[in-house]
Amino acid sequence: MEKIRYFPDVLKDMKYLQSFLGVVNFAGIFIKDLAKYKKNFRPLLKETESAKWKWEEIHTQRVRELKQVCNNLSKLAIPQDEDELVVYTDANDYRWAAMLMKMTTTGEEPCRYTRVVHRTTSPSVAHQRERILCSLEGI
C-alpha cells in the first residue's frame, strides 16, 4: 500500500485513475464501505467522445480519503513463491471466512482475506461441509 502515497491528489486521465483504483482494489476487502469512496469515479471511467474527462473537487476529496484509509491499514504482504504461507479459516452455519498469512521472522503478515455469507438447510451436515469448503476456497 506504500505505492498509494505516490499518486497525486488530482489524477490527470482515465489511465491514472484506473492505476489508482487498481492499487486501492488490492486492499479492497480490508476497506469498509469501499463502494462509497469509488462511486464518484464511475462517470470518469465511462469517458467517451461526448463525455470528456472532467475532474472535480469531489474526485480530489475521494482520492485523499482513500489514500488516508489505505495508509491507515495494517501492512499487507504480497506472497512470493518461496514464502511460507498459512491459511486460517472459520465457518459456521451462516458464513465462512479465510485469511492468507505470510510467515515472517517477526510474525505473520496478512496477504488476503475473503468471506461468504450463505444459508443452509441442514446445520449439522452443512457445517462440516462448509468448513471443508472454506479451507479449499481460502487456498
UniProtKB/TrEMBL annotation:
Naturally occurring in which organism (per UniProt): Sesamum angustifolium
Alphabetical list of InterPro entries matching this protein: DNA/RNA_pol_sf (IPR043502), Rev_trsase/Diguanyl_cyclase (IPR043128), RT_RNaseH_2 (IPR041577), Viral_Replic_Matur_Polypro (IPR051320)
Domain Reverse transcriptase/retrotransposon-derived protein RNase H-like: 55-114
Protein name (record): Reverse transcriptase/retrotransposon-derived protein RNase H-like domain-containing protein
